[in-house]
Write a structure and sequence with these properties.
This protein has helices spanning 2-15, 28-44, 48-67, 71-88, 95-130, 145-161, 170-178, 191-200, 206-239, 246-277, 295-301, 304-318, 325-343, 347-370, 377-399, 403-415, 422-428, 430-444, 449-459, 462-479. It is mainly alpha-helical.
């Protein structure tokens, strides 16, 4: 009896929320649960309502394991927004009433986000202006709140504008809002793209299952092998601004530029892969952004679900490019300011967003001149180098603990830079350099190479698939860090 009791207690402990160990796609707990989830999901896949109940329940449990009792906040948001969407869509509702429903939804969703994410930031700034003795509020940011808030906002606006019909049942909306592959770190799911898939109740094809497996393995390599390993050196540089030579600091900046890409795109790959195995399609979120030759192209390739959301719900409603040149630049700037604040409540994020907004404006202003320049390889290389330098320097503000630390790290590069450090660095950080080279080579491959690689994996014999899986597992075991590192975008 004691053995059975101990076993039950052990299982209960693993199922309970642990703030020190939130559930991640890269954790063993998730994959153990997912191996139990998939056979049950397969049994229920042809029974629409049973499947919706099962997946929604698992998604809410997944969020509980990631963020504890904040799962109740997610549930309340889903009930409130769904109710409003149904009420305002009833025949005979006046335009004013419908607008009031939208306003109520936005006030609730954005108000909750503002309280948890921005209350201390605004209070601190007010305190600085009046010279008070401000004590920060004891707030814990719910995991993924920025992602599912943007989904709920887009849903209620799209229903108001007639782009999508409100779901017939709360269960369908809860399924959409809480869909666990995309819940805590995106991609941001759009209702007009995802809701029709629920009713289709389509089974994944053999090709989709193996393509999903390929994306999951690719995401694991990016996150658990490359990003987590190179982060160990990058953290040394960013945790001690100015303590290292200019060369070492520059390597840390370049390293973080690659780390954040592998970390976030790795999560997106895993999310898209898991959804694909389940028979659902999530939009592509990254398209080799470090190939970009200007800031505009970068934002067409980086975090695509966010950039398109900002375009459709901020930039275009502000007037887009329809109200003159000056207004277009201003709209770009405001949109990117919102994007910066979305990432975090700190002036460094405001600066990061403002600089990207300014970069977009400068690119649009100079485009007529740039288009007349010769399209040669060295010219393309020049624009690429300028774009990557701009992006990498701004990532410093994204990663550093404060605005002052960001400035200090950038200054350190020019203060004590010498290539004489390179041989010793290469000797001490050979694996770091190898993994960095892997990322560079992956970006340098011709367009379509990775799609062909995925297709080849799908067509390959089962023994090849098994061997690839074993290699990935072995790489994770060989290069893993002591603890499972959270995803960078997990905090948003």
């Amino acid at each position: 009896m004691s053995v059975l009791t101990d076993l039950c207690n052990n299982i209960a402990a693993h199922l309970a929320y642990n703030p020190a160990e939130p559930m991640l796609f890269s954790s063993g707990t998730f994959w153990a649960l997912f191996l139990v989830f998939m056979p049950l999901y397969g049994l229920l896949r042809s029974r629409l309502w049973q499947m919706l109940v099962f997946v929604t329940a698992f998604s809410f449990f997944f969020y509980y394991k990631s963020s504890g009792l904040f799962v109740l906040l997610l549930a309340a948001t889903s009930v409130f927004d769904w109710t409003l969407s149904r009420v305002m869509s009833r025949p005979g509702r006046s335009r004013r009433f419908r607008r009031m429903c939208v306003a109520a939804s936005l006030l609730a969703s954005l108000g909750i986000l503002a309280y948890f994410k921005y209350a201390n930031f605004f209070l601190w700034n007010i305190n600085a202006m009046i010279g008070g003795n401000f004590q920060p509020l004891d707030l814990v940011l719910p995991v993924g709140i920025s992602f599912y808030t943007f989904q709920s906002v887009s849903y209620i606006i799209d229903v108001y504008k007639g782009r999508v019909a409100p779901t017939e049942t709360w269960l369908e909306y809860a399924f959409f809002l809480s869909f666990f592959p995309a819940l805590v770190a995106g991609p941001i799911v759009r209702a007009d793209y995802f809701l029709p898939q629920i009713r289709q109740n389509r089974h994944a094809t053999r090709s989709e299952v193996f393509t999903g497996l390929w994306l999951i393995m690719l995401g694991v390599v990016k996150k658990a092998v490359i990003a987590d390993y190179i982060a160990q050196y990058n953290d040394l540089i960013f945790d001690a601004p100015g303590a290292y030579s200019g060369f070492e600091t520059l390597m840390g900046i370049i390293g973080y530029t690659m780390q954040i890409y592998c970390d976030f795109s790795g999560y997106s790959d895993m999310a898209i892969g898991i959804a694909m195995i389940m028979g659902f399609s999530l939009a592509r979120n990254f398209n080799f952004p470090y190939r970009s030759q200007n800031v505009g192209e970068f934002w067409h390739r980086w975090h695509i679900s966010l950039s398109t959301w900002l375009r459709d719900y901020i930039y275009i409603p502000l007037g887009g490019n329809r109200k003159g040149t000056a207004r277009t630049y201003l709209n770009n700037f405001i949109t990117m300011l919102v994007g910066g604040l979305w990432h975090g409540a700190a002036w460094k994020f405001v600066f990061w967003g403002a600089m990207h907004g300014g970069g977009l404006a400068v690119h649009k202003a100079t485009k007529p001149v740039l288009d007349r320049l010769p399209d040669t390889w060295w010219m393309r290389a020049l624009w690429w180098a300028m774009t990557m330098s701009f992006v990498a320097v701004l990532w410093v503000f994204f990663r550093a603990s404060s605005f002052a630390d960001s400035v200090e790290i950038i200054r350190a590069v020019g203060r004590d830079f010498s290539l004489a450090y390179a041989p010793a660095f290469a000797s001490a950080r050979m694996m770091w350099l190898v993994l960095m080279l892997v990322i560079i080579v992956a970006h340098a491959m011709p367009e379509g190479f990775w799609d062909k690689a995925a297709a080849a994996f799908v067509r390959s014999p089962w023994i090849v698939k098994l061997l690839a899986f074993v290699v990935v597992v072995q790489l994770v075991l060989e290069l893993r860090t002591a603890d499972v590192a959270p995803f960078i975008y997990f905090q948003f």
